[in-house]
Amino acid sequence: MNHPLMDSKPETPYLLLNRSKSEHNINRLKRHLNDLDVPLRPHVKTAKSLEVAQMLFPDGPGPITVSTLAEAEFFAAAGYKDILYAVGIAPNKLNRVAQLRSEGVDLVVLLDSAEQAEALAQFCTSNRASIPTLIEIDCDGHRGGIAPDSPELLHVATLITNGSAEVRGVLTHAGESYSCFTDADRTEAAENERQTAVKAAERLRAAGHAAPVVSIGSTPTAHATKDLTGVTEVRAGNFVFFDLVMAGNGVCDVTDLALSVVTTVIGHREDKGWIMTDAGWMATSSDKGTSSQPVNQYFGLVATRDGALIPDLVMIDATQEHGALAMRPGTDRPLPEIPVGTEVRILPIHACATASQHDVYRVISKDDGPIEAIWNRTHGW
């Protein structure tokens, strides 16, 4: 049965997904990790879609990473039973975790503090439950986690086991790899990520904790790693679509980007040198993640409706429902003549943020091809 939105020409703005490019991106990372003999536990927080997950797991549900319990519940209902919730656990969410586990889902949670460990232990004791846990390890000072040589690591592990919970292992995320702009720097970040996680796991095992899981990963390091000794799984999510941040880092080419937002030209501001569209930050997001990169792509690059990049035309500004296209500062190219009513595409700065603005993907197999399907996305926390 066709999706009800397939019956009419879509109104802009809408989210377009090139399925062939996604398949290419997926196969690229799978081949790399297969060569290193370590499985992928993809992060589905970017996609939030069963159909995209089916591209990752064509033979049936496999192990996934989620960023919200709503994602966990959504994918569990579709048969995904091996799920890692890779955000530090808030005590008020433990009832939902326990409910999913009672339904046969091997849901693993994450924590990085004594306070979280105490709350988890108390919950497990009070509810006669055992919830498996990964301890987050800080490998580069980017966000959360415990230093691998910190006394707190063993203290947290003891609190977990004393409360009848399970120390399943460790997890780290090389967030600073997003600021690496050379292959050598990304490879160095990947090796640091690996060594940090393995060291933490070895400390836990020496103290009597089984810690069978050593989970690492980010899109930059997953592609750059050359040695995964001691690692049991790699996580990444952005790689399915890629975006301008990843292209700016050198992880992919702009031609690899599988997502774009289709928008319509609605006017011109000749005094400002702007072409106005009907896609503001509510359609593309307000993420400006390339602003600290060597080349600032502002709110996104601009392509024709058929996917041909328009040289030096960028989405220079955005309000809630208005986008402003202009020539990149410093270029001597003239502003192209694009009439009102013309559809163009915006290539996203951050695929996760852009996709989250939309309820569905409109799917194509090639840039100049027709829309072939509509895939739903899940939302919420």
3D structure, described in words:
The chain has helices at residues 19-36, 50-56, 69-77, 94-102, 114-127, 151-162, 183-206, 219-224, 244-249, 281-284, 351-355, and strands at 14-18, 64-66, 82-88, 106-111, 132-137, 166-172, 213-216, 233-234, 259-269, 274-277, 301-304, 309-318, 323-327, 343-347, 360-364, 373-376. By secondary structure, the protein is α/β, with parallel strands linked by helices. The protein folds into two domains: 41-235, TIM Barrel (Alpha-Beta Barrel); 254-376, D-serine dehydratase-like domain (Lyase, Ornithine Decarboxylase, Chain A, domain 1, Beta Barrel), CATH 2.40.37.20. The strands form two sheets. Strands 2-3-4-5-6-7-8 form a seven-stranded parallel beta sheet. A six-stranded antiparallel β-barrel has the order 9-10-13-12-11-14. Strand 15 (360-364) and strand 16 (373-376) form a beta hairpin. Helix 5 packs parallel to helix 6 (151-162). The longest helix has 24 residues, at 183-206. The protein is globular and about 70 Å long. 47% of the residues are buried. The model has no long low-confidence stretch (mean pLDDT 96).
The share of residues in extended strands comes to: 15-25%
How would you sum up the major sheet? Answer: 7 strands, parallel
Indicate how many domains the architecture comprises. Answer: 2
The helix content is 25-40%
Mean pLDDT: 96
SSE-based structural type? alpha/beta
CATH third-level topology of the largest domain: TIM Barrel
CATH architecture of the largest domain: Alpha-Beta Barrel
> Low-confidence stretches at least 5 residues in length (pLDDT < 50)?
none
Broad shape? globular
Q: Strands of the biggest beta sheet: in what spatial order?
A: 2-3-4-5-6-7-8
Helix-strand pattern, N to C?
EHHEHEHEHEHEHEHEHEEHEEEEHEE
- Please report the first level of CATH classification, the CATH class of the largest domain: Alpha Beta
